[in-house]
Specification:
The protein is mostly beta strands and about 350 residues long. It is built from three helices and 21 strands. The protein has an eleven-stranded mixed sheet, covered by helices on one side. It has a three-stranded parallel sheet with strand order 12-14-16, with no helix packed on it. The chain has a three-stranded parallel sheet with strand order 18-20-21, with no helix packed on it. β1 and β2 form a beta hairpin. Bound molecules: 2-acetamido-2-deoxy-beta-D-glucopyranose (5 copies). One 2-acetamido-2-deoxy-beta-D-glucopyranose binds next to β19.
C-alpha cells in the first residue's frame, strides 16, 4: 500500500541530500559567523553535544555538529540544533537571528530547557525557507513578522508553549508548502485569509491547541494533502475540507465539536486516513466511502450518525471501535439494522 510521505519526511529527505555534498577542505568559515556561532554555543551553556564547535577548526568543515555552509560562498546556510540537554533555562540566542543572515534552514528541535519567545527580529533571516521550532518550552505569540520572510516554505512550530492567535498575515507567503502549529496553546479562530494561501500549500496541522469557532468557508479554495485539526474546539461545518476532486490523503478532525451532514460530502479518492471521532457529525455514511481503495485508517466513533453502514470496499475491514457510540448507526461490523 502506498502512503504519501508526511511533510516532515519530505523535508528530511531534502536535508539529507544537501548533507551529501562533498565538503571543501580549505578553511573558509566566515570569521564573523564563526564568532557568532561560538557566542551561540556559550549562550546555550556550552552543551556537550556542541563540543565539536571548536574555535581552532573551520566551522564549514562539516565537523561542527549541525552547521552547514554554502559550497560557493562559505556562509553558514543551515543550522540544525537538536536533542540538546541545556544545563539551565535559556532563551534562543539572539545571534541566530542577527548574525547568520544567510541561513535558509533553521531547526531547533527537542531542547526542553529553551524558554522565552520567538523574537520579531526573526524576519532578519530574509533567506529562510524552513523554520522548525519543536519540543521546546518557548512561549508567547507566533510573530507576525514571519510573513515578511517571503522565501518561507515550511513553518513547523510544534509541541511548544505558544499562545495567542494564528497570524492571519502568513497567507501572503507566496511559496508556502506546510504550516504546522500542532501541540501548543493557541486560541482564537482559523484565519479567513488562509483560504487565499497559494497553490503550493499542502500540509496544514493545528492539532492539539485551543482553537474555537467555525472553519472558514474560504478554506474550500485549498487543495490540501495532509490536514490535522484534531483536538481543538472547532464547531460547525467541516465539509469545505472535503471534495471528490481533492488530493487529500490524511484528514484528522477528531476531538472537536464539528456538526455537519456527512452524507453530503465529496470524498477525495486518495484518502488513506479519515478520523472524525468525537464530534457532533450527523447524517448517514455516504456510499462513496466503499470506493476509497487505499483507506486504511477510519474512525467515525462518538458522533450522531444514523443509518446503515454501506457494505463494500474497506469499510468492513474496520472493527466496531471505528463506528461505536453513534446515534443509530447499524450494520456490519455493528449489529444488524432493524428492518
Ligand atoms: C495529529 O496531530 C496530533 C498532535 O500532534 C498527533 O498526535 C496525531 O498523531 C496527528 N494525527 C495524524 C493522523 O498524524
Ligand atoms: C492520487 O494518487 C495517484 C497515485 O499516487 C496520483 O497519480 C493522483 O494524481 C492522485 N490524485 C489526486 C486527485 O491527487
Ligand atoms: C482517531 O481519533 C481518536 C480520538 O482522538 C483516537 O483515539 C484514534 O487513535 C484515532 N485513530 C486514528 C486511526 O488516527
Ligand atoms: C480494532 O482495531 C484496532 C485497529 O486495528 C485495534 O487496535 C483494536 O484492538 C481492535 N479492537 C477490537 C475490539 O477488536
Ligand atoms: C476510534 O476512536 C475511539 C475514540 O477515540 C477509540 O476508542 C478507538 O480505539 C478508535 N478506533 C480506531 C480503530 O482508531
Amino acid at each position: 500500500m502506498e502512503k504519501f510521505p508526511s511533510c516532515i519526511f519530505l523535508l528530511l529527505l531534502t536535508l539529507t541530500t544537501h548533507n551529501l555534498i562533498i565538503p571543501s577542505l580549505s578553511l573558509k568559515c566566515n570569521p564573523a559567523e564563526k564568532e557568532a556561532l561560538l557566542k551561540i554555543k556559550k549562550e546555550l551553556g556550552s552543551p556537550t553535544k556542541l563540543s565539536s564547535w571548536n574555535p581552532t577548526t573551520d566551522c564549514c568543515s562539516h565537523k561542527w555538529e549541525g552547521v552547514l555552509c554554502d559550497s560557493q560562498t562559505y556562509r553558514v546556510n543551515k543550522l540544525d540544533l537538536f536533542d540538546l540537554n541545556l544545563p539551565k533555562h535559556v532563551q534562543i540566542p539572539p545571534s541566530i537571528f542577527t548574525n547568520l543572515p544567510f541561513i535558509n534552514f533553521l531547526s531547533i528541535d527537542n531542547i526542553p530547557n529553551l524558554v522565552g519567545t520567538i523574537p520579531p527580529s526573526i524576519s532578519k533571516l530574509t533567506k529562510l525557507e524552513v523554520l522548525i521550532i519543536s519540543g521546546t518550552s518557548i512561549s508567547g505569540e507566533i510573530p507576525n513578522s514571519l510573513s515578511q520572510i517571503k522565501t518561507l516554505t515550511s513553518i513547523l512550530l510544534t509541541d511548544n508553549k505558544l499562545t495567542g492567535t494564528i497570524p492571519a498575515t502568513l497567507s501572503s507567503l507566496p511559496d508556502v508548502f506546510s504550516i504546522y502549529f500542532n501541540g501548543n496553546q493557541l486560541t482564537g479562530t482559523i484565519p479567513e485569509s488562509y483560504g487565499s494561501l497559494p497553490k503550493s500549500f499542502m500540509c496544514f496541522g493545528l492539532a492539539e491547541n485551543r482553537l474555537t469557532g467555525k472553519i472558514p468557508a474560504s478554506l474550500a479554495n485549498l487543495n490540501l494533502v495532509l490536514v490535522n485539526l484534531s483536538g481543538n474546539a472547532l464547531e460547525g461545518d467541516a465539509s469545505v475540507l472535503f471534495g471528490s476532486k481533492k488530493r487529500t490523503v490524511e484528514l484528522s478532525l477528531d476531538k472537536n465539536m464539528l456538526s455537519f451532514d456527512i452524507g453530503k460530502v465529496g470524498l477525495p479518492k486518495n484518502l488513506t486516513l479519515l478520523n472524525l471521532s468525537k464530534n457532533k457529525i450527523y447524517g448517514a455514511l455516504p456510499k462513496g466511502l466503499t470506493k476509497l481503495k487505499v483507506l486504511s485508517d477510519f474512525n467515525v466513533s462518538y458522533n450522531n450518525l444514523c443509518g446503515e453502514i454501506p457494505i463494500g470496499g474497506k469499510l468492513q475491514n474496520f472493527n466496531e471501535s471505528s463506528y461505536a457510540h453513534n446515534k443509530c448507526l447499524c450494520g456490519s461490523p455493528l449489529r444488524h439494522c432493524k428492518t
